[in-house]
Prior knowledge:
By secondary structure, this protein is an alpha/beta fold.
Amino acid sequence: MSETRNPAQPEEGLSAAPPGAKSKARLEGALGWRWLLVVARVAAMLAWSFAVIPIHVVVRLAGRPALIPPTYLCGIGWIAGLRFTVEGRPRKHALLLANHLSWLDIMALAAVSRTAFVAHSGLTVSPALKWLCEQNGTVFVARHQRHTVAEQIARIREALGARRLTIFPEGTTSDGRALLPFKSALLSAVGQLPADVPVQPVALVYDEAEEIAWVDGEPGLTNACKILARTRPVHLTVRFLPPLGGPALADRKAMAAAAREAIVRALGK
Length: 269
């Protein structure tokens, strides 16, 4: 009498690979020799981190917490292959409203404008990532926690008084083909801006936007490896557009609509 084996069970002497190992194997197979580029760049990022973070800690204790993080982020972007040019200039203490395609957006904007960012509280799940974000003054918001809205608004307004602050009004990354609708709810905390805080749209124009974009549903590891495995640089133009004025500042909906229209024109879409 023959034994019936469950097809889901591995052959005798073989062990089933865990899901993480399978994902890594698929990535290695897709990247081929370029997997070595990923390893080399990750190693360089770690070396850069070990060199810069201790300096940041000392400078932070000396009362200059915002001095080092933009330089650190610029270095991480450079190691990842990011090369950018700048058109226009960021206004002092501006609220920057930018389109969003990739995690590289943060490296570029921090480098050229020394801005802090408003980010979703989901990033706080990783203690290491949360700590890194906090070093650059990131303001975390949790839109589902309505009982903390007043506190979140207070933190955003406090940040605006200290340095530039960037919000990505799309609320997520786009696929690089078209700009997503701007969610005016993300601007609810800045409805009444101080007179000395300009609202400035910023267009992030990648030469190969569709290849760089972190599309919805794509695992973060896959996107990171895709970029780190490139054999050519990622070229980006950061365009600081004229600040909004007049009726465009009437309320958050007008602000979102005017910023999106300006960025669409700058992107040529």
